[in-house]
Amino acid sequence: MKYDYRETTDDLLTRIDIHTKYGSRDIDRWMLDLLPLRPGMKILDVGCGAGKQCLSYHKELKGQADITGGDVNRELLDQARRASAEANANIRYIDLNFNERFPLEDGQFDLLSCCFAIYYAEDIPYTIREMHRVLKPGGTLFTTGPMRTNKQFFYDVIREATGKEIPPMPGSSRYDSEILGTIRATFSNVEIHIFENPLVFETVEPFIDYTRASLSEDRKLWSSFFQDKDDFQRIMDSITRVAEKRLEQDGKLVMTKVVGGFMATR
Ligand SMILES: C[S@@+](CC[C@H](N)C(=O)[O-])C[C@H]1O[C@@H](n2cnc3c(N)ncnc32)[C@H](O)[C@@H]1O
């Protein structure tokens, strides 16, 4: 029998909160400084979720842009619509499943962004071709995702605590390989920009909270590591022991988030 040992608190929120508290760099600012944003431009954000990037473009361009967000998750689209209404932002949100033909005409957008979403695509070349199709000639594609070196410390500790190989993660196992390769094959002038945000922990607790939230939120990925509540607790106990040992050796725990921003021209 499988137990539902999801925490009552929202695991994703726990992780976001730990990023804000223990990291010092702001990924939204990094993106805004990189992107060729100009007033009057037409922007599409694919996998827009609750509208974080759309709202950030709107604010940066002081409302002087035509912005569309697309996602497959209607609940998130509703959240995005509510947040945009509250911010008085005129942003269009559409149903868009990137495994299917985008419900959009060819050659419309100056900028297409896809943040922390492209690696959920079933057929990467197909999705990248759709992105290419809806961009104007000379338009910019920008994607973000985890590089292979992302959170090395986190995986090292889990490997040491369990003696097991880490299962392939949907993002970091193919973002800087298959996905980058496909962008290079489809677009010209592909640039790689790296965002590093070291999360520095002076005690083991926030690292353990982060790990607990990660393993429990993504528990399908970790099914070879634990089946039930007792397994989960056993693994968390041995991870805690390894983290305590590392803290004693190094005086602090540093887990660095490494995000790649791929910028390409159609
Ligand atoms: C990690 S979230 C990122 C959301 C947002 N870009 C952000 O950075 O806050 C991944 C997003 O990809 C979306 N997604 C997953 N599969 C998708 C698909 N087939 N078509 C469109 N969006 C998809 C999810 O619904 C989710 O909103």
Model description:
This protein has 266 residues and is α/β, with parallel strands linked by helices. The protein has one domain: Rossmann fold. It contains nine helices and seven strands. A seven-stranded mixed β-sheet has the order 3-2-1-4-5-7-6, with helices on both faces. Helix 1 (11-22) packs antiparallel against helix 8, helix 5 (124-134) crosses helix 7 (175-186) and helix 8 (204-217) runs antiparallel to helix 9 (229-250). The longest helix is centred in the C-terminal third of the chain and has 22 residues, at 229-250. It is elongated and about 55 Å long. 34% of the residues are buried. Mean pLDDT is 93; it is low at 1-5.
SSE pattern, N- to C-terminal? HHEHEHEEHEHHEHHE
How far apart are the first and last residues' alpha carbons, in Å?
51 Å
Give the name of the CATH architecture: 3-Layer(aba) Sandwich
Mean of all residue-level pLDDT scores:
93
Number of DSSP E strands: 7
Produce the secondary structure layout.
Blueprint (H helix, E strand, L loop, with lengths): L10 H12 L4 H8 L7 E5 L5 H9 L5 E6 L2 H13 L5 E4 L13 E7 L8 H11 E12 L5 H11 L12 H12 L1 E14 L2 H14 L11 H22 L2 E13 L1
Parallel strand pairs: 1-2, 1-4, 2-3, 4-5
Antiparallel strand pairs: 5-7, 6-7
The structure holds S-adenosylmethionine (SAM).
